[in-house]
Design goal:
The chain has 2 domains: about 110 residues, NAD(P)-binding Rossmann-like Domain (Rossmann fold), CATH 3.40.50.720; about 180 residues, Rossmann fold (3-Layer(aba) Sandwich). About 30% of the residues lie in helices and about 15% in strands. The protein has 10 helices and 12 strands. The strands form 2 sheets. The protein has a 7-stranded parallel beta sheet. Strands 2-1-3-4-5 form a 5-stranded parallel beta sheet, covered by helices on one side. Helix 4 packs across helix 6.
Length: about 300
């Protein structure tokens, strides 16, 4: 069986082929080449693939994504109903997401952002001790990533709630579900952590309407997708003081343009889409297992429900 491998980072791409080939010796791997001839692939293993991949390789029956977000797959030209889309379910990403969210939360709640500023001025200025019950956390999205984030923060004794379409319940996490419970979820939240998948329903979800329902002086942590956030609305709410700060890892345009106002805003912390990288060894092992399940004619885990968008 032949597989086409298409990875957005051409420099990094070759480092994936060898371990994939070693893990799946029964599969013949080919690099995607924009100007090359079709190879007759039945499988595609991808990350942020070119839109015309399936047009060029019409024999593909399954696409395996080297990540958890699948919005790029759903935008492929020539995506037939009979093509299975399969995503990574963790592969070391969930713990990284939890670390990132914990960093952003602790930096705000323990006032390390303040200490960074006073150090620059040479000022010895102890801040008031944390009142943990006042730092209510809300996690948007309770899939594998969101659940790990929520459980990690709750283990540090922060009051944590999770919101999802279904109202998924976890021990020690207050649960909210559906649009009807969203206002109550937002109203009790001081630090909002977004881990939602990007779908038609969640695009522009972080907008003036939702963010203005958060507690006064709240914080936003976006580790979902850049298209979740209406950037102008965030800037406006920071200007009014309704939001006190934001930690952002994802953006509508990446890399973030050098003249973007986020770079110099004193209340915004930026990282370059590094909250959770797909770890190679774990990802290769998981993809290989899923490919073998598919080749046996069985149903792999991580199968994307297109109607939901994840």
């Amino acid at each position: 069986m032949k597989a086409i491998f298409a990875y957005a980072d051409r420099i990094e791409s070759p480092t994936w082929i060898a371990p994939l080939q070693a893990a799946l010796p029964e599969v013949e791997f080919h690099h995607w080449r924009p100007d090359g001839p079709p190879v007759g692939a039945e499988l595609a293993i991808v990350w942020n693939p070119p839109r015309d991949l399936l047009r060029r390789e019409p024999g593909v029956r399954a696409v395996f994504n080297l990540g958890a977000g699948v919005d790029a797959l759903l935008g492929l030209d020539g995506l037939r109903d009979d093509i299975q889309l399969v995503r990574l379910e963790d592969a070391g990403m969930a713990v990284q997401m939890a670390e990132y969210a914990a960093y952003a939360l602790i930096r705000a709640s323990r006032q390390f952002d303040v200490y960074e500023g006073v150090q620059a001025s040479g000022t010895w200025a102890p801040q008031p001790a944390i009142r943990r019950k006042e730092w209510t956390v809300g996690v948007l999205g309770m899939g594998v990533m969101g659940a790990r984030v929520a459980q990690t923060l709750a283990a540090m004794d922060y009051p944590v709630a999770g919101w999802s379409r279904s109202g998924k319940a976890l021990p020690g996490i207050e649960s909210f579900g559906g649009r009807e419970q969203l206002p109550a979820f937002l109203a009790r939240t001081r630090v909002l952590v977004n881990t939602l998948p990007l779908t038609d329903d969640t695009r522009n979800f972080l907008c003036r309407e939702t963010l203005s329902q958060l507690m006064q002086g709240s914080y936003l942590v976006n580790i979902g997708r850049g298209d979740h956030l209406v950037e102008e609305d965030l800037l406006a709410l920071l200007e009014t003081g309704h939001l006190k700060g934001a930690t952002l890892d994802v953006f509508r345009t990446e890399p973030l343009p050098s003249d973007h106002p986020f770079w110099t805003h004193p209340a915004i912390t930026i990282t370059p889409h590094v909250a959770a990288a797909s770890l190679k060894e774990e990802s290769v092992t998981q993809i290989a297992d899923k490919v073998r399940v598919f080749m046996r004619g069985e149903r792999p885990t991580g199968l994307v429900a297109r109607s939901k968008g994840y």
